[in-house]
Amino acid sequence: MSSILHILNGDSTLYGFNQTGLDGDVMVWREVLSEGPLQENISSASFWTARSEWISKTFNEPVEDYQHKMIEELGKLNGSYEEINLWFEFDLHCQVNLLGVMQMLNQQTNMSLPAVYLICPACYPGIDDFRGMGELNGDQLEDLYDSREQLSEWEFELAAEAWPLYVNSSADDLQLWLDENSFWGILHLLKPALQAHIKRLRTNAEGLNYIEQKLLDIYNSGIKTKIEIYQAFWSTEKIYGMGDSEIDIYLNRLKQKQLIEL
Fold first, then answer.
1. Buried b (16+ CB within 10 A) or exposed e, 145-176
2. Is the pTM of this model over 0.70?
3. What digits encode the pLDDT tens for the residues 38-48?
4. Which residue range forms the structural domain that includes residue 46?
């Protein structure tokens, strides 16, 4: 076993990462904690059972696939690594996954033992509309690695405060907490992501949240195919970091309310 572990947020980063010359074991975090049921105790069996059932139902995937792609990967967190690198991005999808990973590390690791680093770019030189590390090649990812920053106990405490607030889904409580905190350290991209989350916790007079209303507006503007709706949504809402299958969750709600036909 290597003394270094790299935790990558999804397979899109893995392709470029495999072109790097970086040493270490790799764990791919194939989850979307920004959607679906959550519990505060992320290390409990019931947490992962509920996730498995929801993912299987929502994305029409066999439970065995989730077991293999996600649950078995979690075993790598039990390794005695001297260095752990967290490769996550600026958007809500990534920031919530990052909170989950930090929560798990906090609960099951002697945090004074491994040095934990964060690689979390919001932009990249020469790429105008940066969407994520899946766009980068091996050399570019190595550049990011060279400028990584070490997470302190303080950031882990901040993440431990944010996690239950996120899980409990009270827009008011979350907003109050965001307003109370003026210093974010290395986790400075967490605040804008959680502010985007608050927008989707609140509903308007029609009972639609921000994302549902946005998609309905796109549809009503005359954009009627799924692929065009995705692209129109991404052009202004990349803060959510949603893939097409996640956008489909919201489109399906609009279909059930008979507000759109696709």
1. beeeeebeeebbebbeebbebbbeeeeeebbe
2. yes
3. 999 999 999 99
4. 4-167
